[in-house]
histidine kinase
Amino acid sequence: MRLGLKLFLGFFLIVGIAAFFVMRVFVNEVKPGVRQAMEATLVDAANVLAVMAAPDLKAGRIGDGTFATQLATAQRRDPRAMVWRFPKRSIDYRVTVTDASGIVVYDSRGQDVGRDNSRWNDVYRTLRGQYGARSSAETRGEGSTTVMHVAAPVYDPADARTLIGVLTLSQPNDTIDPFIAASQRAIVARGAWLIGLSALIGLLMTWWLARGIGGLNRYAQAVSAGEPVPPPKPRRDEIGDLGRALETMRRKLEGKAYVEQYVQSLTHEMKSPLAAIRGAAELLQEPLPEAERQRFAGNIVQQERRLTETIDQLLRLAEVEQHGWLQRRGAVDLAGVCRSLAEDAAPRLQAQALVVDCQLPAQALVQGDAFLLRQALSNLLDNAIAFSPAGGRIVLQVQRHEAGWTVEVADTGLGVPDYARERVFERFYSLARPGSGQRSSGLGLPFVAEVARLHGGRAQLHNRPGGGALASLWLPLA
C-alpha cells in the first residue's frame, strides 16, 4: 500500500470514527432532550391552569363552570400554526382534575370522571406535596403511543396552603415525534457533510504531503540513476528541509566525482600539447637555423593556443553540466540569434571565400537561456566554417518541426567519416580540419548536446545525401 493511501486512510478513520460517535450521541440525545423540553412546558401550563381551575373546583362546579367552558372553547380552536415546516391544526392538551382524595371530577374529554387516580404517580406524588409526572401508554396494554402527564396542585383560593385537588395536563408524545425525527435527520445530514468535508480535507492534505514525498522520491531515484535533475521545489516544512539536505549532499558527492573525472580528462588532453611544447623548447636550446627556430617557436604558440582553447571549452562545458538545469529562462528568438551570428562571422567567411545562405523566418521564439543558445549555435557555425572548403556554401536554416523549432547548419565539406559518426558527441573527440590537419578541443559538440538537453531538445549530426555534413538543434516551443 502506498504511503499516500495509508495517510489518507489513517486520517479518514480518525475523523470518520470520531464524527460517527459524536453524531450517534447527538442523535440519541435528541429524543430525551425534546421530551424534557415538552415536560418543562407542560409544568408551566399545568400550574397556570391549576390556578384558573381553583375557584370552580372549590365551588363544586368544575365540570360545568367557567373553567370548563373556556377550556372547551379553547380546544375547539384551530391554531393554523406552522411549526418548523409542520402544520398544527388542533389543541392536543388533555386536562383532568381530581379532588383531594384523587377521584377524577373533571376530564376535558369526559371519559374518566369518577375514576380513582390516586395511585397514578402524577396524582399520588402531588397529593403528598411532591412533583408528580409520568409517561404511560395512552391505552392500557398498548405501549406504542405514550402520553406525558404532568400534575400541579390546586390550592384553596382563600388559603394557599390548603390542597383541594390535583390538575393533570397531558399531551401525547407522538405530537413531537416529527420534530424529533426531523432533528435527527438534520444531524445525520450535517454529520454526513462533516464526514465528507473531513474526507476532502484529508484527501487534500494527503495529496499535499504525498506530492512532496513523491517529489523527493523521484528526485532521489533520478540522482541514484545519474540523471541531472533540478532540486525539489522549496517548501517551508520538514519535507523542504529534507529536499535541501538531499540537494546539498548530491552537489558534494557529484562535485567530488566531477572534479576527479575532469582532472583525469584534462590531464590526458594536456599531455600531447605539453609534450610538443617540451620537445620544441628543448630543440630551441640548441643552435638552429633561423627558419627552424621560427618553426619550433610557432609550434609552441600553436600548442599553447590549443591548451588555452581546451581549458576554456572545458570550463564552459563544466559550468553547464554542473548546473543540471537552466538557471535563467526567457524568450529567445532563434532567427535573430542566427542572423547575428552570420553577421559576426562575415570576416571569416570572406577570408575563406565562403557563402552563408540564411533561410530564416521573421521570428522563431523559444523559452531558454539566450547566452547558452547563442554559444551552442556559434559552435555549430564554427564547425561548418572549419570543415567547408574554400568557395563552399553554408546553409543556415530555421524551421518549425514537431511542436518546436529546428536550427540546421549544412556545409559542403567531406562529411563525417563512418568510423566517427557514433563518437562526434564524445568529450575531447575531434576530427582533423581539412587543409591544416589541426584538431579542435573536441568539446564544442558535447557543449551543444548538453545545451540541447537542458532545454528539453536534442542535437544531431549526420551526412547530407549530396555531400557535406548537416548539424541540427531542435528546441521545443516551451
Observations:
- The chain has ten helices and 14 strands.
- The first helix runs from residue 3 to 59.
- Residues 3-182 form a domain with the Beta-Lactamase fold (CATH 3.30.450.20).
